[in-house]
Amino acid sequence: VPAGGASLRPCSTRVTLEGVNRPVIDRIIRVDHAGEYGANRIYAGQMAVLGRSSVGPLIQQMWDQEKDHLKKFNELMVVYRVRPTVLLPFWNVAGFVLGAGSALLGKKGAMACTVAVEESISDHYNSQIRTLMEEDPEKYKELLQIIKQFRDDEREHHDIGLEHDAEA
Asked: Quick check: 10 pLDDT over 60?
């Protein structure tokens, strides 16, 4: 301990966990982490097949955003002390297989997969936003901002898929 009694341990920027609805927050963060992990694996599978094609840079751009989402949920799991789902090994394999399998169908197949997955995820985020708004929008302000931003990113990916022949 240095002079003055201050600790060498850095201060935590942890959010206040008092008054937080633990079951709701645990569920939201665990599910979102698993979803972003799965999305990362889907894009990894698509890149393994289509990475050097004309659509590769577009897939990489969306994957980079998903990597940022996963990084943030990894941080939130520590802050809120949430355990990851026990299904991560399943998401690891299933996500990659879904991504590679859809990409084997070509650009349209990959984009159709993107549209379906991103639509489902953005709907899921909307449901979580409603839940947190009903709980206490001020208490969950930071988490709401994160989820809203990620929802908007997922909608963008959805729309990119539609623009690139997903419906074909």
From this structure: no
pLDDT band at 15 (very low <50, low <70, confident <90, very high): low
H or E stretch including 78? Answer: helix 56-79
- pLDDT, one tens digit per residue, over 95-119 is 999 999 999 999 999 999 999 999 9
Predicted TM-score (pTM) of this structure: 0.88
Angle at 109 between CA 153 and CA 47, to 5 degrees: 65
SS3 for 83?
coil
| 5 lies in some domain | no
> What is the span of the domain harbouring residue 78?
22-166
107 touches 144 (CB < 8 A): no
In a domain, 109, yes or no: yes
Instruction: Examine residue 144 and state whether it is found in any structural domain, yes or no.
Output: yes
